[in-house]
Amino acid sequence: MSAPVITFLSDYGHDDDFVGVCHGVIARLAPEARVIDVSHGIPRHDIRAGALLLRGSLPFMPAGVHLAVVDPDVGAARRAVALRVADAGRLLVGPDNGLLSLAAEEFGGVVEAIDIGRSPFRLEPVSATFHGRDLFAPIAAQLAIGADPASLGDPCDPDALVRLELPRPTIEHGALVAHALYVDRFGNVQLNVSHADLDGAGLRLGQPMAVSAAGTVHTAHYGRTFGDVAPGELLVYEDAHRTLALAVSRGSAAVRLGIVLDDEIRISSLR
Amino acid sequence: MSAPVITFLSDYGHDDDFVGVCHGVIARLAPEARVIDVSHGIPRHDIRAGALLLRGSLPFMPAGVHLAVVDPDVGAARRAVALRVADAGRLLVGPDNGLLSLAAEEFGGVVEAIDIGRSPFRLEPVSATFHGRDLFAPIAAQLAIGADPASLGDPCDPDALVRLELPRPTIEHGALVAHALYVDRFGNVQLNVSHADLDGAGLRLGQPMAVSAAGTVHTAHYGRTFGDVAPGELLVYEDAHRTLALAVSRGSAAVRLGIVLDDEIRISSLR
Amino acid sequence: MSAPVITFLSDYGHDDDFVGVCHGVIARLAPEARVIDVSHGIPRHDIRAGALLLRGSLPFMPAGVHLAVVDPDVGAARRAVALRVADAGRLLVGPDNGLLSLAAEEFGGVVEAIDIGRSPFRLEPVSATFHGRDLFAPIAAQLAIGADPASLGDPCDPDALVRLELPRPTIEHGALVAHALYVDRFGNVQLNVSHADLDGAGLRLGQPMAVSAAGTVHTAHYGRTFGDVAPGELLVYEDAHRTLALAVSRGSAAVRLGIVLDDEIRISSLR
User: ipTM for the complex?
Assistant: First the structure.
C-alpha cells in the first residue's frame, strides 16, 4: 500500500512560510500522507494561470487529493469547496473561483460538490486571511486519511460552481487569431490553440509562418523543438501540453515579441 | 508510529544547493526522518525575520526537531546550540544569535541548552562557512533518531543564550506608535501591535483610521480581510499570526506606503 | 530497509510546474522512492553550473539514482543516458552534454553507459521539449525500483560521453591566474583554484593579497571565514567545496568586484 498523496499548488511563493505552514498542518493531521508540491510560483492572484497549470499537471500526478489555493477573495463571500470528479480516486480542494474548474473538466466533471466553508474540521480560530492553513489544508488532510467528503461540509450543486472561460481562437482572413494564455520561466508563450486548429487554418509542420504580435510581424518556423531553429530565431511548436506555443531558441519569446498575457497573436502562412 | 520530523528554516534561498545538501546529510544519517521545509526565503542574514517566522510557524508543525540557520557569523565566535524547550517533544537547533529565542519563548522557554560547537557528531572536515551542512544538519539528524541532547555537546546556561529584543509599541498624543516588523511576498506589513494594543489606543474594528508612514498620512479602514476595502485601498487588519498588519487590497502596502523594515508607523482614530 | 533515493537537480526553476510534474511522474512509477531536490535554481541552460553543483553536492547525498536535467538541446541530437559509476550504488541519469561528467569523475568514472533515448520505458507520447517528464524521470523511477540499467536502453561507449572541460589556473609573473566558475546567492565567487594551487603560488593563510578583477586591483585578506574581515572587506577563503573563493563580508563579492562568470581573476602576494 502506498502512502496517500496530496498534491499542492498555490500562489504563496517561497519567500514566506505559507507553504511550509500548510505542510505542517497536513503533517499533524495526516502524518502518513505524502505531499507533492505542483508549484507555488503562480503569479499572485492569477486564477487562470493556476487553473491551466492544474489541468496540465494533475494527469501526471498520482490519484489523490489535489489541493490548490489561489484565492484573491479569501475571507470574503466566495465559496470554499471539496469536489469529487468522475475519474476514480481524485478529489479537488480549494476556493470556488474557477481555479479547480479546468482540472475538474479534464477529469470528467464534478460528481459531488461539498461546501466546506463552515466545516467542523477547520482549524480554530479560523483567520480571515490564511484559509490555506485554517481551512483548505485541514480538509485536504481529512480526505487523505479517508474521510467521506460528505462528512466535511454541506452538499452544493455542481452546476453552480464557478467555471473559467478561456478565450477561443478564431480564423480571420486566413489568419489564425490566438491569445497568449501563459508564459513560462523560459519566456515560452502558450497559446489557446491546438494542433487541430492549426490544421484548420491550413498551416503545416515545417512551413515558414508569419506571427503578428504587439503590432509587429515576425517570421517563424513551425518545428518540433528549440533546436529546429537557429539561436535567436522564432519557433512555433506543439508544447508538452500538446497546445501550440511560441519560443525563441536560447532566448525568450515573451521578451522578444513583447507579449503579455491575453495579447492577441495572429499566425498565417508565408507561402 | 509516525516518522520523526525535522523542520528546516534558513536564508539559503533556492538558487544554490545549500538546502538540498542539508537534506542529503539528514537523509544519510536519519533516513527515516521526514524533513518539512518551513521557508528558505528569509532575507539574507535577517535574524529577526527568521525568528519571527519560526515563532509564527512552529506551533503549526508537528513536534520534533526544529532546525534553523540564519547565521551571519558562521565560523566566528558565536555559539551553536541544541535547545530543549518546556513544550514536550520539541527541540531547537541553530546558531545562538537570537534566531531561536522567540520560538523558544513561545514553547515555554529553554529547559536544557547544549553547546554543540565541538560536537563529535559534526561532519569532518568541518568547513568554516557551511555549518548548516557540517554541524547543524548532522546534530538535527542525531536528535531525530533519538539521541539525548546532552550526548551531543557540552551543557550551557539557558539564561546566557542570546535573546532577540523586538521594538515595543507606545502611545503618543493618542496615536499608537508601531513599527514594521516583517513584509511578506504580497507586500503586507506586519506590525509589532496586538489586538489589545489597538483597543488600548481606543481604536475599534470597522472605524476609519489615519495611518502615518514615511512622512505621509493615509486613510485606512480597520477590517477583517482584503475584500473589506476596495481594490487599491488601505486596510488595517489582524493577520494570521493574530498581530496587526497593513495591506492594500490587490496591491502592496509596503510599496504604496514606501515602508521599509523598522519604519515607525503611527495609527490614530479619524473620528 | 530505507526507501530508495532519487536526487533531482535541474534548471527548471520554481515558477512553473516542471519540477512538480517530474515528482508526480516518479511518484506514480516508484511510489516508494524518496525524492531529494538538490537544486532547481541552476541558471537556464548553464550546463557547467549544474555540473559543478552536482559534483559538489552528490557526495553528501545518499547513494541512489541521481537525476539531473539542464538540457538546452532537448529533442535534438544530443544523447540521453543512464550511467553506472565506480562508486557502489550510484547511478546518474540525464542528457549527455557534460552535465553528468564532473560528478561521474568524482565517483570514480563511468563503468556502464546506457543510451536511453529510445527506451521502452519512456512516457508516450514523448514530447519534443519536456524530456524531464517523458524520459528522464521515468527512467530514474525504473532504476529506483531496481531495474537493471542495461534493460532500459542500448549500451554505449563510456569513452564517447561528452566531458566538460574546466579552465585551469596558471601562474604568470608570480600571480595566480584563476577564473570565476560559479557565483552563489550571497555573491560569493568560486574560483578554479585549490588550496594546493595557492601554496604553489607562494600565497599563505593570514597574508594580505592583491586581487585583480575587471581591470581593478583590490586588497584582500586570506582568511577562514567571513568574520575574519570587517564588513565590506574582501576575503579570499577556502569554501565548503574546498576550493578557493572570494567573498565580501556582509556584502557581495560579485557585485563589488563586477565579476561575471569566466572572468579572469589574478591573485598575488602583497608582501
Answer: 0.95
